[in-house]
Amino acid sequence: MLLWALNPENPYAYYVLLRWVCCAAFAYLAFQALAQGKRDWVWVGDTVEGIMSLLDAPDDKVIGEVFNLGTGISTSVLELAEIISNLMGKPKKLNFMTERFGQVQNHISSTEKLFSATGFKAKMPLNEGLKRTIEWYDMNKEWWKNQIWLKKVPVRLKKNKIIYW
To answer: Please, is 142 exposed, middle or buried when counting C-beta atoms within 10 Å of its C-beta (0-12, 13-18, 19+)?
Structure first.
């Protein structure tokens, strides 16, 4: 069995974008965004529940199969930044960057197969998951304050050009 979990959105995972956006908003820093990139954001609790549903499923429904675990809903990085800014009551400060070579525009999971095999469907609404994530970052500033220097990461583009995200 192979499981693809798409972009876990949670307060504990080391997922760069959410960490970066929340830290940037708390610290009044600008952050870079892709105007059109969309992702399927899934709450960590839903990810765990989805994994458990596969482990509890009859073997004949899951052995040798590949499943996507997500919400089946894509949200742009720009929309995500707007939601976070609104939830935090902060103005959004965006720097739009050149897209990386080979950047996939839309990551979205097809969840029908997992539902058919296990009855699992992600439940956490994006806004509520982000609200909980922001609360976690607010309560754990000592954890992320030392990572602000990571706000600029070198990315190699076509023809070996390097930009800083």
So the answer is: exposed
Task: List pLDDT tens digits, range 117-163.
Answer: 999 999 999 999 889 888 888 888 887 777 666 666 677 777 888 77
Distance CA 114, CA 129 (A): 21
pTM to 2 decimal places = 0.69
Residue 60 host element (H or E): helix 59-62
Per-residue pLDDT reduced to its tens digit, 14-39: 344 555 555 555 544 444 455 567 88
Sequence letter at residue 123: K
In order of their start, the domains of the chain are 2-164 (3.40.50.720)
